Amino acid sequence: MSRSFAKFPLGEFVRHRVYGFRGVVFDIDPEFNNSEEWYDSIPADVRPRKDQPFYHLLAENHDKSPYVAYVSEQNLELEDSDELIDHPDLPDYFTVDDDGRLIYRHPMN
What we know:
Elements: E1 13-16, E2 22-29, H1 36-40, E3 54-60, E4 66-72, E5 76-78, H2 90-93, E6 94-96, E7 102-104
Antiparallel strand pairs: 1-2, 1-5, 2-3, 3-4, 6-7
């Protein structure tokens, strides 16, 4: 599947515009592809449109605890730091080259 529809490519470091957590993109949906229950749980004042790319992120909270996030494109911005995310699943999706850049590799099945 082509990822040309998305603003942020696989391996890009991003930050949530509202909540400020950091993450790295490991998968992309061309538009919303989650449950209605999940969507309805988002506060109405920050609930995103469904007709935009949504990103699966290996993320970390402000206290550095890891989790997986699902975030709309409108709620993401480029992260100004390329410091690696300390996430236990990072090696499942990426290798790190000699310059410290993430190289996406398809996860093992």
